[in-house]
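Researcher: I need the complex structure. Ligand is uracil. Inputs:
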Amino acid sequence: MVFSNANFPMTSDGRTYHVELKRGECANRVITVGDHARAKRMAKLLDAEPPVFEYMSHRNFYTATGRYNGVPVSIIAIGMGNALVDFFVREVRAVVDGPMCMIRFGSCGSLKGANVGNFIVPDSAVGILRNYDYFTPDNDGLQPYIITKPAPADPDVVELLNDELSKVFGDDRVHKGLNINADSFYSSQGRVDENFIDHNEDLFDRIDKELPNAVSLEMENFILYHLANCSTTAPLANKSAKKSISVGSTMMVFADRLSNEFINHDTVPGLEMKGGRAVLEAITRWVPEEQLHSDTGSVWEL
Ligand code: R1P
Ligand code: URA
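Model: Output:
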């Protein structure tokens, strides 16, 4: 493939470098997940017409675009961690006209006793990042982990997710609160690994003190919320609004960090299908304030 621009590489037919979508292949409503299997399961919930468009990029970003109850929607599996969220958000934003809604449907560990199989709907997220400088000889005055300030989700999106998930699972299985986006599944989520020096033995105490309303630990939400809050109106036809991405997320609890229980993976497909349908219901209820990407020539055109 030939790319035209080192600043933001694109093919001559308008595909981005890593996610590899071009205009008309990604809808304004996007559900992003970590696991390809979750995305493929959810793609089965899309309408039969038009046929679902599927695309796997050379960097393993998997996209399924179609309609849910007639509303155009994309489901994109990106893998794990902050860097992949950055590729996803920037490259998708570059090829979609109009305001967007991005919802992450992930998995997480719970901190406040939300049981395995429950759902978290975070209204905000912080990052906990390993402080690499702390692990050098000259680390005076440094902490081993950096905690960022919170980034908010869109309150309307939080409300839609809460509403749809509560209808399916009941209020007592859907928990709100602050999410922690760690840059490791292990060290910055307070997991002990005797093969490495991590200085994370008192991380949970620090979280209790500094983040008393934290309910969950995962690896993508802070960066997703942060980028949505930093998004601009550049791709909009009508440049009246500042932020162009409405954002929210929900995660299934796979690990209860208090009781140390981990999910039985045989139960995951069923949970993902029920939860995935609720997320699709929520995202299709999102009301954009401006005109969306044209159907003409898109993969969701009827
Ligand atoms: C770690 O197992 C992965 O699971 C969670 C974390 O954020 C991390 O990506 O989310 P996903 O199940 O969506 O990948
Ligand atoms: N995903 C995470 O990032 N952490 C967990 O404990 C479970 C799922």
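Model: Summary of the prediction. DSSP finds six helices and twelve strands in the chain.
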